[in-house]
């Protein structure tokens, strides 16, 4: 299996990308096609003694920056790692594409170059978020700011497919993020979406979920528009970071608290691991015709490696094919109504 | 000063409401008009030995439940504590109204009975939320699901007034909750609101704030529609609760961790206090012509007492009058454009 990896995307590129790639080659037996500034990659690999076995480097002369306007960047920077990588994926030169680069450019590029599955207008960014009982998939977690009810129904179908196929959850539950449990709650779009989800075939819809209950992790999939998803994803990270920061201050306060930290070390490590999004690696763009995985912008080697693992599972399970079958069933049911 | 208090609202009514009222009479020297089931109140007070000095009880025969449809409940339950209380406020029989009851009924009742300030379509629920550097005011935190840009500008003006007058913040900063720092981010409504806020007189607008930065508490006022505000408020509570729950498990794990807890006790207490919304008491409906304060549904005595303190400060500072002057200036500027 060949995974195409953007060597230039992310805050720690290319070093973390190289390290993650080398670990993935070793652990998962995949081949990597690494796109970016070849000279810089070879230099970093030599300096840090990272093996390039199983990694084929392809030089790209351009780079899409986080500040670039996504649609314009995809149109004009033809030799950037993102555009080259998505074209190689489309042409069958690799089985999946992984990047820690610009979410906007990946979203536009996935839509325009790789194209979308039948029944999907725009791919959704689907992030797995740690929670109390079990991690849940949040989609759309930031790609499509505004969404029609039909888009939300497609997200529900795709998220269920993913959690069943990739995460092995049985009959995954799906909830609609809303400001109250009752069907009458929320904006007109959400009220319509609620009704649509109730009759969507092949999903286990359990109703609305209120924001205060989202971190419990009682459901497998939380569906929302990309604006709300961005708030949920980033605020969860922000509040967790704030409290973990307060904890750190608490432990550093005096000799007694430092001693307490020593006694709690393994517990604190467990807590951090439970809250660690790096364990999940990346967020797939569900609805693209081939697997496109967005790794967190701050990814270190572990997150890159896990994003590659995620890509491998998507390919192994023919996730896109399965999802297309589920979406076709949804379309057939809608047409038959 | 006379504060009208809903004795029936909240999960712990009437006991916590009575206790909070008695404490407020003692600490702040206010008089309380307590509305609700008079017999039940007298019984609870006698049983728990709560002094009714300074508390005048007025019997109400009806009660608005959390499950009642708000507009219908306000129209039909004329002898409920919320409707009677808002009418007494309007008629000048008291200076402010405090309730831990149905947010929806209070919102509708404040609009229809007390009415709104000139330039305000609907009052906004304004909640003060604990954060890393300093607590911030979030409005609308749940009353108006959808908001036009002009409503968001009015929220900014009112939130600034409140933070300056009641919380004593100098030249309070205001930010618009959005999914990116750039002006071009967000929905069309948010992009329009951003432009409007840039030219709104009398406020210190500092641009968009991303959800991940909200818990830092770097700004004094965060403006958003009530749907987004509900997500921010409830998710902040939910994530904090999840992590504090994990901490508790960590402390209870074994003998060493229990010992660690003893060493950290004061630090943990500080952390809890910092995250404790009860300290702030309640959320005012900004934009109502007279002070209407919503206390949290789960309020205990301390939260009720603090909501009464908040009501007192609003009255002492003629908050509604100050706010009307600021709104009139905004309207004059808009008309002069």
TrEMBL record, chains A, B:
Pathway: Lipid metabolism; phospholipid metabolism. Its main location: cytoplasm. It comes from the Bacteria. The keyword Cytoplasm applies. Coiled coil: none annotated. It is found in: Cytoplasm. Pfam families: FA_synthesis (PF02504). It catalyses: a fatty acyl-[ACP] + phosphate = an acyl phosphate + holo-[ACP]. Its EC number is 2.3.1.274. Belongs to the PlsX family. HAMAP family: PlsX. Homodimer. Probably interacts with PlsY. Catalyzes the reversible formation of acyl-phosphate (acyl-PO(4)) from acyl-[acyl-carrier-protein] (acyl-ACP). This enzyme utilizes acyl-ACP as fatty acyl donor, but not acyl-CoA. PANTHER family: FATTY ACID/PHOSPHOLIPID SYNTHESIS PROTEIN PLSX, PHOSPHATE ACYLTRANSFERASE. This is Phosphate acyltransferase.
């Amino acid at each position: 299996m060949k995974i195409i990896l953007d060597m230039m995307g992310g805050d720690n590129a290319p070093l973390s990308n190289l390290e993650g790639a080398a670990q993935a080659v070793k652990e998962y037996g995949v081949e990597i096609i690494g796109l970016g500034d070849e000279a810089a990659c070879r230099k970093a690999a030599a300096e840090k003694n990272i093996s390039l076995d199983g990694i084929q480097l392809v030089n790209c002369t351009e780079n899409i920056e986080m500040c670039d306007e996504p649609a314009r960047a995809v149109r004009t920077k033809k030799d950037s790692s993102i555009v080259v990588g998505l074209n190689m994926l489309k042409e069958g030169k690799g089985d999946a594409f992984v990047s820690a680069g610009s979410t906007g450019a990946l979203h536009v590029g996935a839509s325009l170059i790789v194209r979308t599955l039948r029944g999907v207008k725009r791919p959704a960014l689907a992030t797995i978020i740690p929670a109390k009982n079990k991690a849940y998939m949040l989609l759309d977690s930031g790609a499509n700011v505004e969404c029609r009810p039909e888009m939300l129904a497609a997200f529900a179908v795709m998220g269920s497919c993913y959690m069943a196929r990739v995460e092995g959850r049985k009959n995954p539950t799906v909830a609609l993020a809303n400001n109250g449990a009752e069907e009458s709650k929320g904006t007109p779009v959400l009220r319509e979406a609620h009704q649509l989800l109730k009759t969507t075939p092949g999903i286990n819809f359990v109703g609305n979920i209120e924001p205060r209950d989202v971190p419990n992790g009682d459901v497998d999939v939380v569906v929302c528009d990309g604006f709300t998803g961005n708030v949920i994803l980033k605020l969860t990270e922000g509040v967790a970071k704030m409290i973990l920061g307060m904890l750190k201050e608490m432990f550093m306060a005096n000799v007694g608290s430092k001693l307490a930290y020593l006694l709690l070390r393994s517990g604190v490590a467990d807590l951090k691991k439970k809250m660690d999004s790096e364990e999940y690696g990346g967020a797939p763009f569900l609805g693209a015709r081939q697997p496109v995985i967005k790794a967190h912008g701050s990814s270190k080697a572990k997150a890159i490696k896990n994003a590659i693992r995620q890509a491998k599972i998507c390919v192994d399970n023919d996730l896109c094919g399965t999802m297309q079958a589920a979406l076709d069933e949804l379309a057939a049911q809608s047409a038959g109504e």
